[in-house]
Amino acid sequence: MTSTLAAPGAAALPLHLVEEGGLTAISATLSAGQANWAAANGFTGALGQLCVLPGAEGHPSGALLGMGTEAKRRRGRFHVARAAAGLPEGDWAIATHMTPAEAEAAALGWNLAAYRFSRYKADKPQKARLVLPAGVDGARIDAIVAGECLTRDLINTPASDMGPEELEAAFLHLASEFGAEARVIRGDELLSENFPLIHAVGRASSRAPRLLDLRWGAEGPSLTLVGKGVCFDTGGLDIKPASSMGLMKKDMGGAAAVLGLARMIMALRLRLRLRVLVPAVENAVGGNAFRPQDVLHSRKGLTVEVNNTDAEGRLVLADALALADADRPDLLISMATLTGAARVAVGPDLAPFYCDDDRVADALAEAGQAVSDPLWRMPFWDPYEPLIEPAIADLDNAPAGGMAGSITAALFLRRFVTETPRYVHFDIYGWQPTAAPARPKGGVGQGARAVLDALPGVLGL
């Protein structure tokens, strides 16, 4: 995606940010004709209201963007980006004082608003460009946006064009772009390399399961990212109804999120040693599909009773986490579109995360608020541990009862991380159900920008 941020120039037109009811207050900065035009067009400063001001010979001379009240702004984010699609082509400079955080959010939101998923259908590009506000690092903004756009593209691509093989291709392209080392373990090699859970989940598909492994960076603290790459989830033999299967192209949203985050880290050349692990599978129905009541063996040595083949994400993550854990990274993060229970608890806009380290958790929560990437901490609640312990195996992949589904899934994953002190698990949704400023309907990254912002403090970069 081409950046829609511009360097300062004399031709830039002013964009005034106006609080609700604040037209009179800024009238001194406008000509009499402009003020009269705004009043005649009913401009009040309501949130999102846009008024393009006329100039000589009918050309625009500036614009007003309504910012509403503080209470209304708290209900959303990236409000300046509301103007991006409505302004005429050209360079626009914000003419209202902003704090450094507000200026960065404005630039980020404007650039994110330019995203279009046009692989199958042409879409009109965003023509208005925003002059980079003073003090904002444009290269950093572009790197973050490029990572987010990668995440969105991967999620938005249907499974017909984004199966395990295509996800592998995207993974290898990213590794090549930044000179990272990459390894892929495919098909029955998963058994000889001791990844039995990944193989069990993906073996029924005509598209072979695989584990993708990327390493980048030679010095600094170590960070490992693990992303769930279920490219389509039928539910397996416990097949989903059509109403639940409709969005399952996004079940590789965790993989998309960690790849987007990895791209940000490598583009910004953070001083750390990065590893990215993605178990890429399709959970399909076939004669060799794993079954309810099967007991599966894991890389960790723990056995798992399958009580629902639709709870497959935690299985593929388990083997990948066991591999990651053996390295004892300084920080281990998993991201997955794992449970519907998380959506019931916090809805699609918040990314719930689990972490036993209060310092890490506080840093993530603060970063999420600072960069408009909202998170919500959930508990690794030890009293629920018995719920994931069935009678005939070490673990149950789908405890009965239907309560605390996101927590029990997180507890299941934690059983495979025994050597790494700092582990964070994100149970993301990865989908924007309705369009919002800087976030069109469709695939969306969650948690990546918050993690990126928190890394310097957490890892001492």
Automatic annotation (TrEMBL):
<dbReference type="InterPro" id="IPR043472">
    <property type="entry name" value="Macro_dom-like"/>
</dbReference>
<dbReference type="GO" id="GO:0004177">
    <property type="term" value="F:aminopeptidase activity"/>
</dbReference>
<comment type="similarity">
    <text>Belongs to the peptidase M17 family.</text>
</comment>
<keyword id="KW-0378">Hydrolase</keyword>
<dbReference type="Pfam" id="PF21337">
    <property type="entry name" value="Peptidase_M17_N_1"/>
</dbReference>
<keyword id="KW-0031">Aminopeptidase</keyword>
<dbReference type="InterPro" id="IPR000819">
    <property type="entry name" value="Peptidase_M17_C"/>
</dbReference>
<dbReference type="Pfam" id="PF00883">
    <property type="entry name" value="Peptidase_M17"/>
</dbReference>
<keyword id="KW-0645">Protease</keyword>
<keyword id="KW-0464">Manganese</keyword>
<protein>
    <submittedName>
        <fullName>Leucyl aminopeptidase family protein</fullName>
    </submittedName>
</protein>
<feature type="domain" description="Cytosol aminopeptidase">
    <location>
        <begin position="308"/>
        <end position="315"/>
    </location>
</feature>
<dbReference type="InterPro" id="IPR048816">
    <property type="entry name" value="Peptidase_M17_N_1"/>
</dbReference>
<dbReference type="InterPro" id="IPR011356">
    <property type="entry name" value="Leucine_aapep/pepB"/>
</dbReference>
